[in-house]
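Entry:
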Amino acid sequence: MNKPDTPARFSTSLSAQLTQAIRERPVTRDDLEAAALFTLDAIANTVAGRNSVPGAKLLAWQRAMQAASGSAGQIDQARLSFLYGALCHILEVDDLHRASVVHPGCVVVPAVMAMAAGRPGNEALTAVLRGFEACTRVGMSVGPAHYRTWHNTATCGPYGSAMAAASLLQLSAEQTVHALGNAGSQSAGLWEFLDTGAETKHLHAGRGAEAGLVAATLAAQGFTGAPTILEGRRGFFIATCSDADPSRLVPPDTDPWQLHLTSIKPWPSCRHTHPAIDCALTLYQRIGGAARVERVEVSAYPAALDLCDRVQVNSAYEGKFSLQHCVAAALTDGQVIFDSFEPEARARLADLRSRIAVEPVEEFSSAYPVHWGSRVRVSLKDGTVLEQAVSDARGDPELPLGFDDMVSKARGLMVHGGHPEPDSLIQGILAMADGAPAPDLAPLLNM
């Protein structure tokens, strides 16, 4: 049997410092209520993800796996967390933490909900808070170069799902460090899928949720992990980060929970397109439609162009990662909805897409990733030039969605996913802040 690391090694590792800081941070009533809203958003996205081509494939795969094993019974927690996570991230309208460029909800909430059915809701929401904190803190520490190749939700997400699962399991500090060590060794997720519009991104969220849950439940059995998984000479930073900043990892006592600094998406596309969508929707009100538009210039920051500079879109997913397509939809239709990415819309908006240029500018580049801004400049056929700029997008902490907006969004997603009683599920999730038991989501997979 391997001899566990000494307490001294645990107390000096970055994982140990992160664990201690998160476990000691107090949780208030406001924190629980905020966590309930983010949990609602993630669960609503999971329900809606069922009504999609990738969602149908994931559910068919699950049925095939059950048939092959001769089992039609309860799915185990690891598989549940995988499916919840993958479904949650399909429609591109889940949450996003700007400073870390991580979607924490699709990895943390699935792991929690796979384990927490019937348990006190405040325990589950505390686990959500801690999970958000861990994956966003790791995401802030990896440095901007990491994001050019690696998908931060996939690589940093397992730390969050492991921290959340460890909280639910009431693991000791040492066991939690072991869980983080093994979660970190499972970190993976590359952007290569974007070149063909492959469905791999959903796998990233599912595996991120599952990896942390597996790591934490193994730690509960005494299974050890590297305490220096982050900073070690063969660890995460050395392997994947050329400009890591470990000073961003451990939260100061004065910082709020990072969940409060996480953005909620109002539109079903890559978050990098949202500042420009904001601008284009405002201009639509002034222009009255795209028939008068001659050309469009979109200014943003390099990361937005790295992922979303795409004139030709051959699939819904490519459209969701196209600044040109999203701006064209907003200027033409005055809205960006699921149908904005279907074949008819992609064909209809092709001409305007071809007349939209994108460029990085210092104003937004220097503010990123703390602020995600954009400017849209429209030249009309009569020579008039109109422009609109934003420093932050709707749904950011500076421009948050209200409670009613959050509930309305969740209800719409659940209806889209075919849930028969969305209001009942919404009420049950929100009641978790008062200690009501966490709902059992497993039946969602068989609706």
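The longest strand covers residues 293-300.
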